[in-house]
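Hi there,

I know you've been waiting on this one. I reran it after we fixed the sequence typo, so this is the corrected version. Both the input and the resulting structure follow.
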Amino acid sequence: MGLCLAAGSAPAQEPSLVRVEAVRYEPLTQTVPVIGRLVSLRSGNIAARIAGPVEQIFVDVGSRVTQGQVIAVLDDETLKADKALAASELAEARADHKTWDAEVELARTELKRQGGLKKSVAFSQAKYEDAQKKVAVAESKVKRAEANIAIKEAALERKILDVEYAVVRAPYDGVVVQRFTEIGAYVNKGDALVRLIGDRALEIEADVPYLRLSGLTAGRIVDVTLDDGTQHRAKVRAVLPSENPLTRTRVVRFEGIFEETTRPLADSQSVTVAVPIGVERRVLTVHKDAVLKRQGGDLVFVIADDTATPRPIQLGEAVGSRIEVLNGLKDGDRVVVRGNERLTPGAKVRIEKGST
């Protein structure tokens, strides 16, 4: 005789849909906050490389420029005239060189002719020696002409550069933060035209107490927080070998690893660096959403064979969104991080796609 369900008995409960995540090892370091600042790797005054009146200025305060973009143009009429004069002088020097080349050929021909008369009664030792001297003099003048050509070529190159320098270009990407001159003003060589800050080439600089330097080895990755609250990371580039005797701090430079920010970064912007105070260690961690607070302590639901089993655990330090596990779990255990509030011991579960 077959068995049947008693009237009014409850049907079998459907498995609960849950999201799980594996227990794993994570690096843990205790940190202290240190206030730092963003510093531009490229900033300074963009100066005139020649003297002259300002003919045009194409930027204003706040203008963003790219490397090679024209910032200003100086009057170059006189410079172009000087360039043309230098080109003419070079052409003259080359003509002189050709003339003395021809003189050398004539002198050598005469010397050869006099040498051919040595066995003849018409040979004159004096004329032969005069011919030798003429060759030497002509060759000397050719060398002098060659040197003069080199001088004139250098002078022309300098004039060409002067004309090029009349156009002042941005040496790097950045933003104009100050303008020092106007159209029509005369500037001398070295006078500043604008001040430029490269706001896309920024590092972090922080004055770190010397007692906290042990964890800041080159290449160490640390967490940083901008003043807009966004979280980022940075890599230690260098600890400068100079200590402030008043504050007992040393300057540390970090290469910023910036993700999306709520506003553009700026030179001297405040930033908080999480400076490690000890040696990094690897600890077993569980996601904070897996932990349930119960009267008897903390517990998680561990999944095995699609069955949820509660397990009491002992917790340690926080590691970002995870928590150090001191006792109760092992590496690779799969625990419920979503849907654990409604679970009961021994409940059957369905694991959500995308779980790790």
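Quick highlight: The chain has two helices and 23 strands.

Best,
R. S.
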